[in-house]
Amino acid sequence: MGIISGREVEVPKEIQSLLENDEKVLHSFEQASITGKIGGAESIYVSNKRVFLLKPTALGLRRNVEDYRYVDMANVYMKKGITRSDIGIKMRFRSDNVSIVHIPKEAATEIVKTIQAGIEGKLETKEQVSNKSETDITSNSDDILEQIRKLSELKKDGILTEEEFEGKKKQLLEKL
Questions:
Q1: By percentage, how much of the chain surpasses pLDDT 70?
Q2: Strands 73-80 vs 62-69: parallel, antiparallel or unpaired
């Protein structure tokens, strides 16, 4: 990878400073610079909430950051080449479409899958994962408590002995 096909890069400070608390960059690639762009190549940074493009200007002395949220995207597509691919994003609401060219072919495939998942609302933030875990724990706790109540009824009805009840209760409580 590199000059011919593009390369993976570190996330620069100007992108890191724009990230929200529960946002994480999932992909970061620079386009191939075989075209001889003066001042550097464009880069793409794909997070769990949006896509950033970093575009050098003024002979590389300045860099413009473009930020595109998944909710504003209609579709994503890829044009595959031998060693590199081009990625295009069709935007909603009369915005110009977005494109970045000369990305490593394998990386472009993963980037397109991630962007598609973002458009479909299938990418989770840390907060959503945390809330989901808390919900799972709460519902699991409720299920276990309900099972203990049912065992208690079986004990009251004489179906379970005290020892059987205590043994089953202990097993269920260990799952909490």
A1: 79
A2: unpaired
